[in-house]
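Re-running the complex after MR caught last week's input typo. The corrected sequence lines follow. Everything else is unchanged.
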Amino acid sequence: MKPGPFVYHRPLSVQEALSVLTDVGHEGKILAGGQSLIPILNMRLASPSHLVDINRVPGLDEVTVSSEAVRVGALVRHRQLERDTGAYAANPLLRQALHCVAHPAIRNRGTTVGSIAHADAAGEMPSVAVLTEAVMEIRGPSGVREVAADDFFEGALETCLDHDEILEAVRFGRFPEGTGTAFLESARRHGDYALAGVAAAVTVTDGTIVSARASFVSVTEVPTRLDLTEAVAGQEPGAVDWSVIDDLVQEHISPEADIHATADYRRVLAGELTRRALAQAVTR
Amino acid sequence: MSTRQFGAPVQRREDPRLVTGNGRYLDDLGHTAYECAFLRSPHAHARIVDIDIADAFEVDGVVAIYLHEDLPGAVGEPLPLLIPHPALIAPRTGYCLAKDEVNHVGEAVVMVVARDRYVAEDAVARIQVEWSPLPAVVGLERAREAAHLVHEEAAGNISAHLLQSVGDVDAALASAPHRLTLDLSIERSACMPMEGKGVYARWDAQDEKLRIYSSTQTSTGVRAAVAAKLGLPLAKVECIAPDIGGGFGAKIMHPWPEEVLIPWAARLLGHDVKWTEDRREHFISSSHERGQLQQVEVGFDDEGRILALDVKFWHDNGSYTPYGIIVPIITSTQLLGPYKPRSYRVEFWSMYTNTVLVTPYRGAGRPQGCFAMERTMDAIAAQLGIDRAEVRSRNFILPQEMPYDHGLMFQDGRPLKYDSGDFPASLAKLKALVGWDDFAAYREQAAAEGRRVGLGIGCYVEGTGVGPYEGGHIQVETNGRVNVATGLTTQGQGHQTILAQIVADELGVPLDDVHVTTGDTRRMAYAVGTFASRGAVMSGNAVALAARVVRAKALRIAAEALEVSADDLDIADGIISVKGAPDTRIALSTVAVLSNPLRYAFDESAKAATQFAGTFDPDKPPIADDEEPGLEGQDFYSPTQATFANGMHAAIVETDPVTAEITILRYCVIHDCGMMVNPMIVEGQVHGGVAQGVGGALYERMFYDESGQLMNASFMDFLIPYASEVPHVETDHLETPSPLNPLGIKGAGEAGTIPVTAVIASAIEDAEGFPIRSMPINPSELWALRREHSQASATKESAP
Ligand SMILES: Cc1cc2nc3c(=O)[nH]c(=O)nc-3n(C[C@H](O)[C@H](O)[C@H](O)COP(=O)(O)OP(=O)(O)OC[C@H]3O[C@@H](n4cnc5c(N)ncnc54)[C@H](O)[C@@H]3O)c2cc1C
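Corrected-run output:
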């Protein structure tokens, strides 16, 4: 379990990182927190010949809260974002979800943006990105382009990022006034990738539900947002029978079996977690 | 008077060093050594057609590449069959490097020695092997079908078949008022020590001497095995077990191929060579355990007393049987637990499969036996509508029946004879601890809240401290330092602490003066190893006996110096004094000086032992005929049989009515390992054991696909419970001394692990109301079982 040979680059600016990435073509890989990439290299599942370590690039480690969004730089560690009180006040879902990402030791190193770039459908933060309608700030040789989370994820571990681009920051959207959120998942062990997970946001205005939506972990091929408003709009949050959303959820998800759980079981789990998450969201 | 150390919760003396990162594990040694990597079989069963290493040799930094054909003499012959047994009809062991055929994914085929491990792995990736795949036999069902064979010469894939019985089971079954049959299964798991295996060898060409460091549970065993394989005189081989990051059984197997190959290469190359196992290698090329299919037929009376117990089981021994059939023998005998069926017959088949070989893992066949027995107890209780604890107590062996001989042969070839134990007292304590009699009310209250809870129970007896022997050597230096050596190895159990406690008491010296060395053949060449919960029993008693030898010698010398009778002397805090006249005294350190008559004074204290100091009897030699110089001595402890510890566990679990998630709410342990040298260390052993047991009950399994690929060979998918999954363990103890050894102690190392699977199954069954016959179980499986049972009852209801 040792990686194959590679050339190690440690650029000191985004520009330098980009020029290395351009030079080495498809043979380059960005190294952020290394919590996904290093195991992949050690197991020789990938053997890129150039690693571009961005950890010394200044200015990428900031969390900034504006009226529309929480902007998270490429080097912000999961743990930093989880603890950021401004971010929590602006969008509590971030902390709720981050608490389920691995363990503190891994969150200390792993980056939230890296986890989104990695685009594992079993990751929590890609799912949060779609639910919050995040905007991806992607910098390439010809400048910055912005991509909506909905358009960013293309498949399992696949995004619209090009080999010579860096995901410089992710702007997680904020929910309207009156929105409650919840994040629930069931993993075999606390901190493991979930068998199924759900992020939920319910907006209540004048005592009735005006919008409800959810996104999922581990039960959809790519993270996508499911709008449940139609099923529950106009209802009183305390009196909803959440099972009205069951069919919508079951249609939306497409879980697969693996050695830990059958697809059927994952369906049951996702259904129940969604009901519970929605019920929890309206109490917040 | 110094306080007695035996029985005191002395803090572990090894911890400050270990927890501050100052441990010295295998990979901390030998930084200039060449390192190795292996090409391991990607096939579960295949013939090797051709191996091309030319391209691999091109990698810069490669030193040597070896195939089986390069191995000379005994190195190229099959690895030893460590524990032969008449019932092992078709034993097979592997080679250091596969010869012509591979029998499991992970079997070593080519060895690369290189500048470092990175280079070695680069080279391995460039080796071309042409394989001719053969059908793989995976799982006990396929093995039993025997449509394909793992080894041509093992007909029906059977390596061993053993039957033992007491009483007339057929007659008792036929006449029993009630009968039940249970089909049970347990899946594979493995030891998974934090530190994998590892070997580092140094060949000293001048001295023609080999030094081996191995992360092993038996340094004497490795030493003897390597000396034999390499044809070296035993006196020219030494083996040292450095700090070891856990063993749990996998490292008592020996010699592992690497333990032969690394020393062989070091000698051949005239350079230090090292290999450190990585996690993937540990999964696919160490050993596994547990996998069994079981069939129980039981006949019992109206009170639930077992009249006949008829057990058949099939044990998955993997691809080879170097460790013999110890595991299924233990299952077949220890299955009986604290109970005395009127008649018993057990028959097992040990089966070959194209998977990693099977050797003892903490618990060593007992968790499976306990599972069979305890599932049976619950089934009897359910059938008769009797309380589950009550059924158990009606079948207990009673204290007045001790020693109790089951009439069977145990794993050490000696009678299965329990030495002591008070099972009714243990059960009473367990019921009190868990609140057995109040549980019905708790269940009702939980049900009213929409919660589902269940209470489970499991009892076991564990034969610990098997022979043949261990030794202790003790030497008192002239500054009062007491050096203790025992040959068995330590993997973090706290041997440095408990052996020092025993010696401090026996010798009458302060604990801080006692220094313990384990697993170093330079200090103690005769030893067996660490397994079978034998460390405290075997080495504990051995160092106690050795301390008594040294104490007697000290008193003889002191008596002469003080001109009193040795009987009038006592030792405390390192000072020997006359009973009742404490001012007449001599320090043990001075006695150590006197014990070694000298010609030369090399320091101040040594002057007292030189030839012109003091008076002496000119007619006697300086050293009497039956004495030796030095205040030291050794002795060995060799018991006639194992000593039997026991315990009873109970758990309360909650299962989610919708998601079938399983939570352990409470876990209670009553534990009896005889006299406890250090109750804190015993508790630690129990806690760790329960944690491992929880892994076996709810999380860990080896997921082989049909072609014999291990699908979860990493810690991402092989789920060892985290601290968050292990419940708080509530413990209480009984101390029923063993009459078999001087200290009255029994082993504690494996105890915590043994009944957990049975207990959790019992609790889930109680919560769910349908039988649990297969473990481990996860929420997805529990949910599927629920669906099966509700469909079954729905069809029953709709039937006319
Ligand atoms: C034991 C363990 C458990 C874990 N459990 C979970 C879990 O439960 N849930 C979960 O979501 N994650 C989990 N993770 C993964 C963790 O969250 C990772 O930190 C995260 O997936 C990747 O972030 P990173 O900074 O470590 O990225 P790296 O590992 O450095 O990189 C990951 C990938 O993203 C690319 N990349 C990184 N940053 C950028 C960027 N700015 N622009 C473009 N590409 C980039 C890299 O090239 C690489 O392909 C776990 C990891 C471990 C080791």
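None of the earlier attempt is carried over here. DSSP finds 19 helices and 29 strands in chain B. The longest strand of chain B covers residues 306-318.
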